[in-house]
Amino acid sequence: MSNTEHTAPTILSNNYRLPFLQGGFPTYGVMPEVLDQMVHIDASRNILYFEVPKAGCSGIKKYMISMAGGNSEFGTSPQLVHDRRISPLRSPSQYPIDQWFRLMHGEGKRFTFVRNPYARIISAYLDKFFGEEATYHNQLLGFPPDHKMTLKQLLYSLMQIADHHRDIHFMSQDYLTGSGSIKFDLIGQLENFNLYFRLISRKFYFDSTPDMKNLIEFGRHHSTKSSEYILDQEEIDLISCIYANDFKRFGYFLLGPVSN
């Protein structure tokens, strides 16, 4: 079999989601509903992308959808890249348990992208509390619909919520990627997206010329200009505490108090 030839696995209908959600499938410490939402599978190539929101996921999914034969031209509705109903990429619950296990332990090629935790939480905050979803996220945390959320208020609220009960955009990257229980073939960092994604396209898709300009421009539809937000020391300390496992596991430097 050549590098470009693949045998498609058995894909089950969505009627099989209930047994998956009720238990029995290995979920690697992640809530089944979250795992099913955040893992995107190219069925013909056995490629599994573990999505981390606010870490380049839009461009990654656009590329995978295109390579899987789907329509990746979303025109004036770039948010459709996140709509699982129209995506050709599969969810874990659409696989028999034995096949899902083999994907996770040998047959599958697993990757994810992570991001500096300071930048990621700023991006999520600006995206979710200064846009169309602000009312929803305010109410989710027990605030009035028209509340003007500050980052400190958000961080203190998140400290009171267990990681797996937070909105996916505020879950830790460590939790979303199995807390070390999943063996990844590659963990890319958004800060070096260009280099890491070229490696993924060559290693998994045998594609040496991905349209990086198009992917990066598409990702800008979801840009929040997080680099312009200046954290104060209290915000830095809160983020360092809430996302301590992200800093430790993925090698990002903690910014502690300034010492004399």
Textual characterization of the structure:
The chain has 260 residues and is α/β, with parallel strands linked by helices. It has a single domain (14-250), classed as Rossmann fold (3-Layer(aba) Sandwich), CATH 3.40.50. The chain has 12 helices and 4 strands; from the N terminus they run ααββααβααααβαααα. It has a 4-stranded mixed β-sheet, with helices on both faces. Strand 1 (39-42) and strand 2 (47-50) form a beta hairpin. Helix 3 (57-67) packs across helix 10 and helix 7 packs parallel to helix 11. The longest helix is centred in the middle third of the chain and has 13 residues, at 117-129. The protein starts with 16 loop residues before the first helix and ends in a 10-residue tail after the last helix. The model is unreliable at 1-15 (pLDDT under 50).
Task: From the structure above, extract its key features.
disordered N terminus; alpha/beta; globular; 260 residues; single chain
Task: Give a concise summary.
The protein is an alpha/beta fold. Helices cover about 40% and strands about 5% of the residues.
pLDDT < 50 stretches: 1-15
Task: Name the overall outline.
Answer: globular
- CATH class descriptor: Alpha Beta
Give the C-alpha Rg: 19 Å
Protein name: Sulfotransferase family protein
InterPro entries: Carb_sulfotrans_8-10, P-loop_NTPase, Sulfotransferase
Pfam families: Sulfotransfer_2
Membrane topology: Single-pass type II membrane protein
Task: Describe the SSE topology.
Elements: H1 17-22, H2 32-38, E1 39-42, E2 47-50, H3 57-67, H4 97-107, E3 109-114, H5 117-129, H6 134-140, H7 151-159, H8 173-176, E4 186-189, H9 193-205, H10 212-219, H11 233-242, H12 244-250
Helix pairs in contact: 3-10, 7-11
